[in-house]
Specification:
The complex is a heterodimer of chains A (about 325) and B (about 300). Chain A contains 14 helices and no strands. Chain A is mostly helical. In chain A, helix 1 packs antiparallel against helix 13 and helix 5 packs antiparallel against helix 10. Helices cover about 65% and strands about 0% of the residues of chain B. Chain B is built from 12 helices and no strands. Chain B is mainly alpha-helical and about 300 residues long. Classes of the chains: A mainly alpha (about 325), B mainly alpha (about 300).
Chain lengths: ~325, ~300
C-alpha cells in the first residue's frame, strides 16, 4: 500500500516536471516581453532593454537551452521562480496570493460540497416527487450558468438591495474596505463578512450544482442495489438503510471528486476573483499573460499542476481508505 | 410508411407447441431509441430550442428587424422596447441582432470543437485499447500529462501569440479540441477493452482485416452511443470554454464576436444598461441548458440499462 503510493507520487513528480517544462517552452516562445519596452516613449536604449530582459532570463537572444538551464538552476538550487520583466519577484507574489485564494474559496467550497451531497442524496430518495423535479430543474439551470454570469447577476441584485435598504449591505470590491472603518466592536470582521457573502454564494452555487447531479445519480444506483434491499428485507429501518448502507457506498466516488476539486479551486476561481476584485492566484495567471510575464505564468501553471496532482494523490488515498475492496487487498 | 415494421427474424421458440407471436410487434433499435427519446420532455424541448436558435443564427439577418452593423442614430443606451426588442448599445447598435451574430459563432465553435475532440477521443482511445503494449502506455501517459496542466492558461498563451484576422477563431477551435479529448479518450478506451474481446472482432482479424479498418468498422460503431452523447455534452463544454476565454479577451477577437465577447463587453455597463449583458448571458445559459438536456435525453434513450422508465 505505502509502496504503491510512493510509486504513484514518484510518477506524478516526473509528470509534473515535464508538464511544467513544456509550459515553460510554450511561454518562452509565445510571449514577447521585449514588446513591453519597445513601445516606451521616450524610447529606451536597445542595450538597456536587453540587460533588463537578461536579468529576468526572458531575452529571446539567449539560446532557449541556456535560458532553460538558468531557470532550472534557479528553482532547484535557490527555490527562485524568477522575476517579472519589471524585476519584481514572482515567488513572493505567489506566496501572498495563495492565501488570498485560500480565504476566498474555502468557505464556499465546503458549503457547496456539503449542500451538494446533502441535496443530491435527498432528491435521490425523493425521486420524481415535486421537490426532486424542482431542484433538478434549478440545478440544470445552475450547471449551464458560468460563474461570471452568476457573479454579475448577484452583483446586480445586491445593488438593488443596497438601494432598497438605504446603506451598503453587500460590498463587492476586494477582500476588505480601504480607509477607516466605523467604530464599533468587531467592525473589521463585519466588513470582511460583507465582502465575502457574494463571492461565497457564487462559489457555493457552482460547487453545489455539480455535486448534486453526481450524488443524485450515485445515490439512485446505490438505492437500487441488492444489499440495500436485503438490509430493508431483514427489517432495517428505511432511514438507517439509506444513511448507513446506501449513502456510505455512494460517497466513495464523491470523495475522489472532492479531492480533485479542492486542488483545482486555487486556480479555478479566476472569474470570481475578477468580478469581486480579489487579488488571488487565478487572476494573477490571467494578468501574467497579458503583461508578458513569462516566469509568472510558468509559476502559476506549476502551482496549478501541483494542486491537481495533490488532488490526485488525495483521491488515491481516499479511495484506498473508503473502499474496503481496495483497502483489504 | 407504417408506424413499425417487423424485425427480420420473428422470435419462435423451438419445441413450443405454437409459435409465439408477440402481442405487439417488435421494434427495431432505432424505433426504440426514438420512442424513449421523445418520451423525455426536457430533451425534446431542448432539441426544438436548439433548432430555433440554429435557424435564427443562419437566417437571423433576414428575419430580424435590424442588422448587427446597422446603427440607429438617436437610440443610444435605450432599454428594450418595441423598436429594439433587447435594447441598444452605447453606439446605437441593436442588441438582439448583435447577440444573434455572436450566437452563430458560438454555435459553430461549439459543434466543431465537440466533433473534433470526440473523433480524436474515439480514434486514440479505441486504438490504444486494441493495440495495447507500448502504444497504449504512451497515450495514457500523454493523457495524464495534458490533464496536469491548467489548459485555460495554455490556450490563452497560444491564442494571444497567435495570428489575428477573420480566421483567427479556427486556431481557438483547434486549441479547445486539443485540450478537450483526454477524459473521453479514457472512457472510450475502457469501453473498447470489452468490445475487442468479442468473437466477431477476432473473426474479422483472422480474415485479415487491417487494424485501422477493424477499428473504424467494428470497434468504434459499437461504442457509438457513448460517442453521440459525448459530442452533445462536448458542445456545451466547448461553448462555455470559448465564452470563458473570450470573457478575458483571449478567445474570439474583433471584428468577430461571440456570446463570450458580448458578455464581457456587457459586463462593463451592468449598472447603466443591464440589457447589454443580460441578452447574451441568458442566451448562453439557455443554449447550454438545451444542449445538456439533449445530451441527457440521448444518453437515457441510447443506454440499454437505463431506468428512464416507461415501456418500449
Amino acid at each position: 500500500m505505502v509502496k504503491y503510493l510512493l510509486l504513484r507520487i514518484a510518477n506524478y513528480a516526473v509528470l509534473l516536471f515535464i508538464a511544467v517544462s513544456l509550459a515553460w517552452v510554450l511561454a518562452q516562445t509565445q510571449l514577447h516581453p521585449r514588446q513591453l519596452f519597445e513601445v516606451r516613449n521616450p524610447p529606451l536604449d536597445p542595450q538597456s532593454i536587453e540587460n533588463i530582459l537578461r536579468a529576468a532570463n526572458v531575452s529571446d537572444q539567449v539560446p532557449l537551452w541556456d535560458r532553460y538551464v538558468t531557470w532550472l538552476k534557479g528553482i532547484f538550487l535557490h527555490w527562485d521562480w524568477g522575476s517579472t520583466p519589471g524585476g519584481a519577484d514572482v515567488g513572493e507574489e505567489i506566496s501572498r496570493r495563495i492565501w488570498v485564494s485560500f480565504r476566498l474559496v474555502t468557505i464556499g467550497w465546503l458549503l457547496g460540497t456539503f449542500l451538494g451531497v446533502a441535496i443530491g442524496a435527498w432528491t435521490a430518495v425523493r425521486q420524481y416527487k415535486i421537490s426532486d423535479r424542482v431542484i433538478t430543474a434549478i440545478v440544470l439551470l445552475l450547471v449551464a450558468t458560468p460563474s461570471y454570469v452568476t457573479g454579475e447577476v448577484s452583483k446586480m441584485v445586491a445593488t438593488v438591495i443596497n438601494k432598497q435598504v438605504g446603506f451598503q449591505l453587500f460590498l463587492f470590491l476586494g477582500e476588505k474596505s480601504t480607509g477607516t472603518l466605523p467604530d464599533y466592536p468587531l467592525a473589521e470582521l463585519v466588513d470582511r463578512v460583507q465582502h465575502m457573502v457574494l463571492p461565497t454564494l457564487v462559489l457555493t452555487l457552482f460547487g453545489l450544482a455539480g455535486l448534486q447531479r453526481l450524488q443524485r445519480g450515485l445515490m439512485l444506483d446505490a438505492l437500487g442495489s441488492d444489499f440495500v434491499r436485503t438490509a430493508r428485507a431483514k427489517g432495517l429501518r428505511e432511514n438507517k438503510a439509506v444513511m448507513k448502507h446506501a449513502l456510505r457506498t455512494a460517497l466513495i466516488p464523491t470523495g475522489t471528486y472532492f479531492a480533485f476539486q479542492a486542488a483545482s479551486l486555487f486556480v479555478g476561481a479566476t472569474y470570481t476573483e475578477r468580478i469581486f476584485a480579489f487579488q488571488g492566484m487565478g487572476i494573477y495567471g490571467v494578468d501574467t499573460i497579458s503583461k508578458q510575464n513569462i516566469n509568472g505564468v510558468v509559476a502559476v501553471t506549476a502551482f496549478g499542476g501541483l494542486c491537481y496532482l495533490i488532488g490526485a494523490i488525495l483521491a488515491d488515498i481516499m479511495v484506498a481508505f473508503l473502499d474496503p475492496r481496495v483497502r483489504l487487498s | 410508411m407504417t408506424d413499425f415494421r417487423i424485425v427480420e427474424e420473428p422470435e419462435i421458440l423451438e419445441g413450443s407447441p405454437t409459435p409465439i407471436t408477440p402481442a405487439s410487434k417488435r421494434l427495431t433499435r432505432g424505433q426504440l431509441v426514438r420512442r424513449r427519446f421523445f418520451r423525455n420532455r426536457g430533451a425534446v424541448v431542448g432539441l426544438i430550442i436548439i433548432g430555433l436558435l440554429v435557424f435564427l443564427a443562419l437566417f437571423g439577418g433576414y428575419v430580424l428587424p435590424w442588422r448587427f452593423d446597422q446603427r440607429d442614430t438617436g437610440a443610444y443606451y435605450k432599454p428594450p422596447s418595441v423598436r429594439h426588442w433587447f435594447g441598444t448599445t452605447q453606439a446605437g447598435f441593436d442588441v438582439l441582432a448583435m447577440t444573434i451574430r455572436g450566437l452563430g459563432k458560438s454555435l459553430v465553435i461549439g459543434f466543431l470543437v465537440a466533433i473534433i475532440q470526440t473523433t480524436m477521443a474515439a480514434l486514440i482511445g479505441s486504438s490504444a485499447a486494441y493495440i495495447g503494449g507500448w502504444y497504449e502506455k504512451a497515450w495514457l501517459w500523454v493523457i495524464d500529462l495534458m490533464l496536469v496542466l491548467p489548459s485555460f492558461f495554455l490556450i490563452a498563451i497560444v491564442s494571444r501569440g497567435g495570428p489575428r484576422g477573420s480566421y483567427a477563431w479556427l486556431l481557438l477551435v483547434v486549441l479547445l479540441a486539443a485540450f478537450g479529448w483526454q477524459l473521453s479518450a479514457r472512457v472510450v478506451r475502457s469501453l473498447s477493452m470489452s468490445v475487442k474481446e468479442r468473437e466477431y472482432v477476432a473473426a474479422a482479424r483472422f480474415m485479415g482485416l487491417s487494424t485501422p479498418r477493424l477499428l473504424v468498422r467494428h470497434i468504434v460503431p459499437n461504442i457509438a452511443s457513448m460517442l453521440i452523447v459525448d459530442v452533445c455534452l462536448g458542445v456545451g463544454y466547448a461553448i462555455l470554454g470559448e465564452a470563458g476565454l473570450s470573457y478575458f479577451g483571449y478567445g474570439v477577437q474583433a471584428p468577430d464576436t461571440s456570446l463570450g465577447t458580448l458578455i464581457s463587453e456587457g459586463a462593463l455597463s451592468t449598472t447603466i444598461a443591464p440589457w447589454i449583458f443580460l441578452a447574451p448571458a441568458s442566451l448562453l445559459v439557455l443554449l447550454v441548458m438545451c444542449v445538456n438536456a439533449l445530451g441527457d435525453g440521448l444518453r437515457d434513450a441510447l443506454d440499454p440499462t437505463s431506468i428512464s422508465g416507461g415501456q418500449a
